[in-house]
Amino acid sequence: MAANYWASTQRLYWRFTKAGLSDMRQKLENEDRTILQQYPLPDIRLISIFFNQQLCKLGNRMSVRQQALATAQVYIRRFYTRIDVRNTNPYLILATALYLACKMEESPQYIRVVVSEARGMWPGMYISDLPSMSYSSNRLPADFIPTDVSKLGECEFYLISEMNSQLIVHHPYRTLQELQGRLNLGQEDISLAWCIINDHYLTDLPLLVAPHVVAIAAIFLALTLKPTQGGLQAAANAAAALANAAQPAKGVSDTGQSAANTPQDRIQYFIGWLAEGEVDIQAVVDSMQELISLYDVWEQYSEKTCKEQISRFVKARGLDK
Fold first, then answer.
1. Are the CB atoms for 39 and 99 separated by under 8 Å?
2. CB of 118 within 8 A of CB of 91?
3. How far apart are CA 286 and CA 104, in angstroms?
4. Over the stretch 58-105, which tens digit does the pLDDT of each residue have?
5. Rounded to an integer, what distance in angstroms lies between the CA atom of residue 292 and that of residue 230?
């Protein structure tokens, strides 16, 4: 196990550029253009929102800790850089990723409990209930999660294999906690930043930047969104301003921390601290813009649409067997 992110497999093997990630996905789509055209899917961010919501609901049924949920989401995102979603049963992948993540985060769940709860979450439905898939005779019942627990066990080995057994995941939560005192952050700031970190798992950021970059971006968004109440546009403006933060006045010291009591003081202190450090400011700005883009596209999200489109290819291609 890598004791820190810099020596971890996460940094060495699971960090990509945007262009590289796009090429990987394009290659998967080019493998079978017929399936791509036959089963179109919404924006990947909308699918990610759906996966996140389903995973959180399943996790809540089993009282799974947040870090295990976060690890499961990283596993899912890694897996789908290797395998096209249309060639899988996403519900089984979600349940398996959560089962595996719980073991890795030292809070294991019994496999029978995971299967039982997953079947309760995604009960059997009838094929004729799906759009464009009606049958004149008997309505055929079909389950998303098999009753045979060995299927989940087999899927677990499938995930491990596709991730090359590189299962240790470093998260931004630790950095957030370490910076709380250093930046004089209030509990409201921390709570909002924590929620933003949770949201970053719905984007490609876990595959693009280091965890500490995400934590810093979340802190800045938390500081700028709350005091201005200007919504996403205010945050976007703040991100643009931060891009020029490499040239602020120097001399921010620990003595200034005690004066950072008002929201505006904390923002100014944070910018000064960031400028004096060695953090990649452009990466922080890009991360903020990625999160803002997620919140913008979230308005288009429809759980019903995602569920129908996923169920359609799972049932039509017999991926629930």
1. no
2. yes
3. 30
4. 999 999 999 999 999 999 999 999 999 999 999 999 999 999 999 999
5. 13
